[in-house]
Design a protein that fits this description.
With 374 residues, this protein is α/β, with parallel strands linked by helices. The protein folds into 2 domains: 202 residues, FAD/NAD(P)-binding domain (3-Layer(bba) Sandwich); 132 residues, FAD/NAD(P)-binding domain (3-Layer(bba) Sandwich), CATH 3.50.50. 24% of the residues lie in helices and 26% in strands. Strands 3-2-1-7-19 form a 5-stranded parallel beta sheet. Strand 1, helix 2 and strand 2 form a beta-alpha-beta unit. Helix 2 packs parallel to helix 9. The two termini are 36 Å apart. The relative contact order is 0.14.
């Protein structure tokens, strides 16, 4: 039985009992089960004790801490340590959680969501906090069935045992999760090959100097784990062949490597396919104003699927990182309830990656006194 089927059989429709106030007509629906969506749900419940609240997620687990997935793979923590909220939490908060349910499209005129299995859900107000999904570069689409990812719990469950059995890993791209994964593999004594893509950090771009510093940082790893000659920069994959014991990877500059598993870390893109054609303004993500309101009444968006307007620079951009998502979830929920709060930056403004500061928010400039989130 797949992990998705397991979640449908065990998690859905657990909380189909009547809500505490069945006469209340408000139904707040949240698409997404990450930090933005869950924080929005808790704020809504704390401020409105009577309304119906539903969280819909295409993942099959309750709210979990994605930054700890590498610790879970390594075996340093168990599944209980990975979870932020248990199923009992939602039951006690009187929040209905719909797991393993994918939204197919939105009909704003009818205030209705259509799920892929043909069910419809009516809402009075909607928060889109759908998060993101792995980005596959167009040049790599023909190799998609050869690539593995570490972007969700279901990804990890499906391949965790293979990671422990495998000895050679080819890491393509980079990004924050990718470098954390590299250090996890190094701690396990695995052999690693890395092809760094500066564009892997979308929406941010690494400069040549930053790439050089990252390579220098990786070079500090033991040579039997990652030799400097096995770090590829300004190269590309020209071919991937499946062989009996894994894959043969060919690069445009003529290098050839054999690996048991190939992992792609080329950044994330907003998971908003369901919003196409419904009238919502979108670019890379869903466009919202500084109050996190979309161009359609009663629909808000927050977290890494939203592009927020900054009046100071008269442009849209995204913020990444857990603290930013939590802050946006709170503001979206309060404004949905009638407040008028402007989203502001949180204290943690950048990640530290191999000694390089990467911004997590565009609201303020980086300064040397800012705290680092690792």
């Amino acid at each position: 039985m797949s992990s998705d089927n397991h979640c449908r059989n065990n998690y859905n429709d657990i909380y189909d009992s009547k809500y505490s106030n069945p006469d209340n007509n408000d139904h707040y629906v949240i698409i997404g089960n990450g930090p933005a969506g869950n924080h929005a749900a808790s704020i809504l419940r704390n401020e409105d004790h009577a309304a119906k609240i539903t969280v819909i997620s295409d993942e099959c687990t309750p709210y979990y801490y994605k930054p700890r997935l590498t610790e879970f793979i390594r075996g340093k923590i168990c599944i209980d340590d990975l979870m932020v909220n248990s199923l009992d939490y939602y039951k006690n908060m009187d929040i209905r959680i719909r797991l393993g349910q994918k939204v197919d499209r939105i009909d704003p005129d009818a205030d209705t969501l259509f799920l892929t299995h043909m069910e419809t859900i009516h809402y009075t107000k909607l928060i889109i906090a759908a998060g993101n999904r792995p980005r596959i570069l167009p040049s790599m689409s023909r190799f998609a069935d050869c690539l593995s990812f570490v972007s969700s719990y279901s990804d990890v469950v499906d391949i965790k045992d293979e990671i422990h059995r495998a000895e050679r890993f080819f890491i393509f791209g980079g990004d924050f999760v990718g470098f954390k994964f590299i250090h996890m593999l190094a701690s396990m004594g695995k052999k690693i090959y890395v092809m760094i893509y500066p564009e892997a950090f979308w929406p941010y771009q690494l400069t040549h100097a930053m790439v050089e510093k990252i390579v220098a940082g990786l070079s500090s790893l033991p040579s039997d784990v990652l030799d400097v000659s096995d770090i590829f920069v300004k190269d590309d994959i020209s071919g991937i062949e499946k062989i009996h014991d894994g894959f043969r990877i060919l690069t445009q500059k003529g290098a050839e490597k054999k690996a048991d598993l190939i992992f792609s870390f080329n950044g994330m893109v907003p998971a908003i396919d369901f919003a196409e054609g419904c009238g919502l303004d979108t670019d890379h993500g869903i466009l919202v104003d500084e109050y996190l309101k979309t161009n359609i009444d009663n629909i808000y968006a927050c977290g890494s699927c939203a592009q927020v307007y900054n009046p100071a620079i008269k442009n849209y951009s995204v913020s990444i990182g857990w603290p930013n998502a939590v802050a946006q979830g709170e503001v979206a929920a309060l404004n949905l309830l009638g407040d008028n709060k402007v989203i502001e930056s949180v204290d943690k403004k950048y990640f530290d990656l191999e000694g390089i500061k990467i911004k997590t928010t565009w609201w303020d400039d980086i300064n040397d006194d800012s705290p680092v989130r690792k």
